[in-house]
Design goal:
Layout lengths: L2 H24 L4 H39 L6 H7 L1 H22 L12
Amino acid sequence: MPIVFIEALAPSILFLSLIVPVVTGYRGKRMSFSMALGWSLFVLSFVFRDIFSLMIAKYFHGKEGAKVVAVDQPGTIAAVFVGWFPALVGHFLGRGMGRLRKFLRSKGKNYDDKEGT
């Protein structure tokens, strides 16, 4: 496995951790589901970058490959505490996009208003 692929796996998981809460919020899923999935993927991307990529590079390329892939400052502990924030923002962004779609599909009628109020 080339080192370029090993280095590209963690950002791919990070991208998924930012997109998944938007999609689940857009689809109207519960916020706890979006938060759990987004936080898990966010933390997994940092764990992969800090630990698993070193193990894979060392397995395929030896110590020299592990030196190339190694990061200077690991961020897994920070990701555990901050990982909920991108998921929260993404969920509400997706929820807003879903409401905008419903509003535009209803041809401008406010679908939340009840008559007589």
